[in-house]
Amino acid sequence: MLVVFTLLLLFCFASLITGLIKPGLVLKWGDKKTRGKVLGYYGLGILLSLILLGIFSDQSETKETAKSSIDKTKDVSQSQSQSQSQSQITLNDPPENEQQVVGEKVVEVKTSALPKEGTEEVNVSEKEPSFKQESSDLNWNKSEPDALQNGNVQLAVDLVKEMSPLSTGEVAYPIEVVKSPWNFYGKTLSFTGIVQDVTDFPPGSEDIRTADVLIQTTDGTLVEFFSTVSSGDIQTGNEVTLTGFPAGRMEVDNALGGTYTHLIMVTNKLK
User: Fold this and answer.
1) Bridge partner list, 78
2) pTM of the predicted model, to two decimals?
3) Which residues pair with 217 in a beta bridge?
4) How far apart, in whole angstroms, are the C-alpha atoms of residue 150 and residue 152?
5) How far is residue 51 from each of residues 17, 48, 56, 103, 228, measured CA to CA in Å?
6) Mean pLDDT of each 10-residue bin along the chain, 271 residues long
């Protein structure tokens, strides 16, 4: 259609120029053949041709844009499909529990590493007893929730001094642990909060703690960590995640009267 309207525009323009010179050559109808009629007829033809060219030109550009967008979408989809296919390809010798692609199905392949010559296979569960099992076997005092009275703090301190640094623990709601700490004795728990106070104790002091870190969790619970190691670079206002053993709770006086309830934890790692 663009070609038709372009030809029509050229025809009207040429007829207009010719008619202005000699109207009789382009006006084959009517008695009076004047330049005014030539200007009216062919000028209107030029105007209509320009309008139609503009309309069909916009439609053509819209179609091209839509086609280009569809092509780009197809290219992206094909690229993602190829990436997913490549990510499922595994090596010929997969490690333990590696996944291999067989046809269109993903099959889990389990391989067992053979012991090297001159060595013997070590059963980790037999040679390295789980500290979680040891901690649960301890005689935790579940009848007295006060951490300063139940003896659980000393029990936990003696335990963590013989352990490697605690790194991860179970996720629990602090308010639930404060409510019934005896349900969590012997478990390592991790809490995240903002540091409210940090205290380090000098070497040789009578306190069983090396450092004390008080944090406030997002639900407003105050969790106080008795640590067997120094606080390091922990500062008030820092957001930290600490792991330890719950030992009970403690009521602490506040300046306005009344008390705050602290959940008491024992740890051997501060970060």
Assistant:
1) none
2) 0.51
3) 193
4) 6
5) 20, 5, 9, 59, 86
6) 73 75 68 71 77 73 61 60 53 46 44 46 42 66 92 91 87 92 93 94 84 94 94 93 94 86 93 72
